[in-house]
Amino acid sequence: MDRDPKLFPKDYVRGAVLRSHLVPQDETVYACDGTPQRRPQFPEKLKWVVRRRTGEDLKTAFVTVHESFLGEPYITGVKRLSVEPEEGAVAIEVRMGDRRHVLFSATDLQREYVVDGSLHIQGRAAWLSYDAAGKPTDTRLFDGTLLVSGEERLVGPGLRQAEIASIDYAAGLVTLGQPCLTEADEGRWVPVRSATHEASVRIEKVLAADRFSVAGQDLRPRTGWLVDTCPNPRDTRDKRMPA
Questions:
Q1: Is residue 20 packed enough to be buried (19+ CB in 10 Å), middle (13-18) or exposed (0-12)?
Q2: How far apart are the first and last CA of the chain?
Q3: For an engineered disulfide with 143, which of 22, 33, 81, 159 has Cβ 3.0 to 4.6 Å away?
Q4: Do 33 and 68 belong together in one domain?
Q5: Which residues of the chain fall short of a pLDDT of 70?
Q6: Do residues 68 and 82 share a domain?
Q7: Which residue segment(s) compose the domain that 203 sits in?
């Protein structure tokens, strides 16, 4: 990360190291080296990794833990933990000296999962930190209803969900099909999910229990441009068509 000081003047970046811990899952890993796009922030050469799985009826979660440090690294081990049922969730263990941390993520918020045979979680994500004796010292549960680790037990209200009834794109107003908002939600980011895509918007102002404003955020679909293909690859004429 030693880059041109004119582009990156902050001294704390110099000498920093980024180490990536790949958690494999019957996959092929390609290490690549090449010239990136010509941008001032990019180095002359760039290294990257391509991870690929092949087969039938694949259920894949590519997991990588990035570790940035100055001097000596602090992560001593990373491994995948078993999850039951397997579909829709992944869990890993990260070791730092005599401590270990468990990170969990799921796509099905209505299902209870068992991690490593003993940890019960129902929610979008969870994080637990254990001391050298194996006792949990810190726990977090995100958009969840249950987290049980031995005698430790966390319960929560879970994720509030509502279908979108209508959107006023010009005014930046979203009306929900069910009332679930409070004034405390102002300033929070909420996930918006369709059948094929998920994004996030910021609640700028709660107008009612079922309506909020996104202010200047543009929710409209974008218009892109397609460059027409040419039989002659040397023909660089810019033939643009609206998408």
A1: exposed
A2: 39
A3: 159
A4: yes
A5: 1-4, 7-8, 10-13, 220-243
A6: no
A7: 160-243
